[in-house]
Amino acid sequence: xxxxxxxxxxxxxxxxxxxxxxxxxxxxxxxxxxxxxxxxxxxxxxxxxxxxxxxxxxxxxxxxxxxxxxxxxxxxxxxxxxxxxxxxxxxxxxxxxxxxxxxxxxxxxxxxxxxxxxxxxxxxxxxxxxxxxxxxxxxxxxxxxxxxxxxxxxxxxxxxxxxxxxxxxxxxxxxxxxxxxxxxxxxxxxxxxxxxxxxxxxxxxxxxxxxxxxxxxxxxxxxxxxxxxxxxxxxxxxxxxxxxxxxxxxxxxxxxxxxxxxxxxxxxxxxxxxxxxx
Length: 278
Fold this sequence. Notes:
Oligomer: single chain
Strand content: under 5%
Number of domains: 1
Distance between the termini: 6 Å
Largest sheet: none
Number of helices: 12
Order of helices and strands: HHHHHHHHHHHH
């Protein structure tokens, strides 16, 4: 079959990409905006924003909520069920498993050592058990975003552009989506510089792209990848972790150039089994 594959009726249409981005930004910026523009008013009426505040979870889960809403409205409960089956796509080459399990931690350790820091994050007074608790909690924060970024945005983009450019677009959107947090008092982002963070987001989105495609559109591996990025056991390595990741990304893109710069073989299904065969 020649030409671009056209989605059958049970997958999301291409225009759903723009609705996804709109909903995601609307939810997060709409929730966080009042705390930036009118902090006293927002705190008085809704309570101080914190990592346990419902508004924090709503803002963090916006990509996932947008993805679920789109699929539920356009394809119903059956579509959601098939979409979630992508969590079971676990088969991938051993090289990618080693990269996610060991390569990413090595980046943070190396970055920390370069700046004269420790190999692991300092232990709290409550011991390693507290860090393990935070690690489990983290699984239900950042990684949940991947239901949107890699669950919906990546496959829809890869219908029209090469995987490399899909990673660039998603990384840029991902970085801009975080922007309000840099103006939110009391968050770690308030102490960071946005430009290195933005570059890091684009780099990470490019890095996870070949993993995503090698796993045939898995949701599991991008979520594990994201989980490693916020693992509380890894030390603070900024800004060196960003620059090391840029170098790693360049190497991986070069090694994966046959798949990163062609659309053939890229994962383009939001709902598996719903696209015509290429």
